[in-house]
Amino acid sequence: MSFDLSVFSNKNIILAVTGGIAAYKSAILVRRLKDYGFNVRVVMTKGAQAFITPLTFQALSGNPVHSELLDPEAEAGMGHIELARWADLVLVAPASCDTLAKFAAGLADDLLSTLYLATKAPVWVAPAMNQQMWAAKPTQRNLNTLVEDGVHVIMPEAGSQACGDVGLGRMPEPEDLAEQVREYFHKAQRAIAEKFGLLAGKKVTITAGPTREAIDPVRYISNHSTGKMGFALAAACYSAGAKVTLIAGPVSLDTPNGVERKNVSSAMQMLDLSMQQLYDGCDIFIATAAVADYRVAEVSEHKIKKAGDELAVSLVKNPDIVATIAQQKQRPFMVGFAAETRNVEEYAAGKLVAKKLDMIACNDVSRADIGFASDQNAMTVFFADRYEMEKRDLEKASKQEIAQQLVEAIHDALEQQQPVV
Ligand code: C5P
Predict the structure, then answer these.
(1) First vs last Cα of the chain: how many Å apart?
(2) CB of 287 shorter than 6 A to ligand 1
(3) Are the CB atoms for 204 and 242 separated by under 8 Å?
(4) How far is the CA of 55 from the centre of ligand 1 (A)?
(5) What does the pLDDT look like over 316-355, one tens digit per residue?
(6) Do 163 and 298 belong to one domain?
(7) Are residue 279 and residue 391 in the same domain, yes or no?
(8) At 26, which CATH number?
(9) Does one domain contain both 238 and 315?
(10) Please, what sign has the CA dihedral across residues 402, 408, 412, 417?
(11) Where is the segment annotated Phosphopantothenoylcysteine decarboxylase (predicted)?
């Protein structure tokens, strides 16, 4: 089977496993969902833990398993409400009779039933049970209620059952369930893109502006970046239908309409928030920030007093934010910027490879008419080898128009994205 591994890397699935012999199939289901690139977190009921251990799911999903409501430790990490918000889809497989009854009645006496009430995400249930229990009137009544409440019921299959009976009640094979989930997100993405724009439904993170590296409480090292390009891009991505988070260094610009802005000062803070964005879900990461390459090794607690004719400040290298994000396993589509004063294209293409980016936009800041503080820009965009497009020249235009062209370039590359190997 061939598929694009990266397409679903931003989609979060809660797989809820309840008590039933089919729980063993859910282990394979986690594998298949991960193969498709989904982020998977597993919630287990007490009943499920009698059939299979949380450790199995933890190892397969790469995430801690959630089973307790109001467990202080779990709530400190990702509590039940956060979990409910995190999910793009809640898939209950296998769904026991008891769970269906709880959902239908609106009970909230364990983690899963509470999560069901607290989530806005679509909920799918794959009932699996003895054929007689499936046919029982209360079960059918509960299923009807769930369908009326908007729950998607994946019908069980007929066949021989673990208890020896033959009839309806077997959970579909994990491959089929994973395929149905994949198909659902594919259709949803296509529908959104057709309706709302080039980056519809995408989560975009943009770093912008300079960083400030403190020397002491009143002084810092910084640069002349104004953040204009990053802010223009944030506006363009939002207009193209994306959900945009702008991680901004100290700049005096208004936050574009619809954009979530997070202010930072230093490079280390910018890195922290960027990593957080990955965790929250990010499809496209655009690094326009002029991050200070070095920070002061030891920031003085008090204002440094004038003494002597010379003062030496020792600097240490800052982490490369965009390269750090690009190294992550579930990485977004990575866009870098390069401002150069000579050998512009050669240096930019080198950075594209060295930082493992998908795309880099470079400009010549030695030209007085474009670049840092200017409202105009002209750029050449290079793409990684795995794209059919090699480079694209963006003619001198306002930063807003350049931003729009960059959005088109990102969209075109995403359309033909190959998995990163
Ligand atoms: O290596 P250079 O600073 O020229 O690379 C520029 C690109 O790398 C920009 O996209 C910039 O935002 C990003 N960068 C970064 N973290 C650093 C330095 C640069 O994300 N510490």
Answers:
(1) 17
(2) yes
(3) yes
(4) 39
(5) 999 999 999 999 988 999 999 998 888 988 999 999 999 9
(6) no
(7) yes
(8) 3.40.50.1950
(9) yes
(10) positive
(11) 1-203
